[in-house]
Structure prediction request, 415 residues.
Amino acid sequence: MRTGIMLLLLGLVAASLAMGSIGCGAATGTLQFYANGEDFVRQGFESKDGWDIDFDHIYVTLAEVKGYHTDPAYDAHEDGATINGKVTAALAGTHTVDLAAGGADADPILVGEVTDAKVAQYNAISWKMINATSGDANGYSLVIIGTATKGEDNVDFTIKVETEYAYYGGEFVGDVRLGVLEEGEAAELEMTFHFDHIFGDAETEADDELNTGAPGFQPFADLAVDEVLNINMAQIAADMDETAYGLLLDMLPTLGHVGEGHCHCEEI
Amino acid sequence: MGRRWLVLCSLSLFLALMLPVTAYAHGADIEYTISSDVEITATYDTGTPMDGGQVTIYAPNDPANPWQTGTCDAEGKYSFTPDPEIPGVWDVQVRLAGHGDIVHIDVAGGSSNGGSYSALQIVLMSVCMAWGFAGTALYFMRKRSAK
Prediction:
């Protein structure tokens, strides 16, 4: 009888240990973080006020990039800056990437990856857009470099943003599902940037919320000298039309998306 | 008598563990309740219906692959019937012209995929469960032999 009880107890202990190892979530995979300026950035587009814009470089500096599994699912509109992740994968370091890198059909930019991320469905993400401390974007969180053309007019522009933002997004909304990480496999999360929110889009109705809320490019063109514009936010605040500047301040926090899903954003 | 009781108990336990929850004897009423339609209404922020919005539905047991796809009607509505044998959180995404959102609908109180078991863990669990059952069986067999 004693042997039977011992066997029974050993079985229960072993089962408990097995359940414990499950709780520890030993299974891992690789979680990759991408940044995507979409075709607007890679292929250029016409602003709401008729400027054809091509981008040479768009530098964003990303830090504290994290992916989360949340349950219940994080909602950017309701949960704000609070993401209660049951599982979290954090990308180490600060990364300056060029969203315009590659050709017109280039893939989104790989920012970095976490090779030992726990197996989970990563359905939320957060990141900070902070000022770079070196390189081409030194001193700025966002640098937009390109050329705008409208009829006979031409502007070579460099727009530099020194304001820093923290973005919090839920699940990626797009044509494929991202973030489902299986053991030994790789899964992706994406930080998507919508630059049509700043310049508007001629292919969208003029009275669409996207265009009525965007400053467009003309307020920037008005500040160019000899077809050149090199300006930062402090100078924009001083020189730009007040209404357009107000729209720009409203739109910069809306740059960050998860595919087509909106993010919660806070100025740092 | 004791052996018959043990066999009956074991069979009952086996049936309780292995049979699906669906009870055919309780028939249509329960099934209809479980499989009632879910209707969504997709609108833009302005309240305008997403006429023609592309709907993608993911079932709880396969979060990576669409379970069903479809299109919203002129009022932005779309209906579907979740498989009652797949309880949990059903995710429904609607997209149109660069706008989109995803909602998470809890059908029969499940939770989303917060971590799956590795092959090693599944094997380990199976071995431990078998070990536990073997220990229980040996205990009863030893007790019967002692009589």
In short: Chain A has one domain: 28-267. The CA atoms of residues 189 and 263 of chain A lie 14 Å apart. The mean pLDDT of chain A is 91. Helices of chain A lie at 2-24, 38-43, 76-79, 196-199, 209-213, 218-221, 233-239, 242-251.
